[in-house]
Amino acid sequence: xxxPDSIRDAKAxxxxxxxxxxxxxxxxxxxxxxxxxxxxxxxxxxxLVTALLLIPGERTIRHSHETGELSIHYYGELRxxxxxxxxxxxxxxLSAAPASSAGGPAAELAAAAAGNAAIVAILQTLVDEQTxxxxxxxxxxxxxxxxxxxxxxxxPPFKTTIEDAAAGSKTVVGQWWD
Length: 178
Prior knowledge:
The chain is of the alpha+beta class and 178 residues long. It contains two helices and nine strands, in the order ββββββααβββ.
């Protein structure tokens, strides 16, 4: 990896002009259309700023950050969405409906499946399929398919856990490429 940027240097960065060691692809090792182009815009001991480009049809990868992530999104034309993912919060994902005090159907299914790997696998498949359907529905309801630009800001120790249902999870410290 390139030498970290000094916090004392002013920066104006065109991601397309960054050297090869500051750009790469994420998600190439994950099944399906998960790849996305990524650039390290700024990296020093206090912050890691990454710019990502997701083209229509590609999907993001479930992950979380130990110290959280400030994320600024642009769907198509300049319509920014700013979000904060607290430390350890797995994203992107639809928020699960809060369980009732009695536990509800999801809790009952989880309790019934405890100790039965086959049922757990079936339930996981159903959840994954529902998530894919929700993502596809969200994509179809957007007025115009457009590139998705993401600016992510991470804080030390820049620790990311990638959640891959097929291969398990892996943890990366610093910028990550596949």
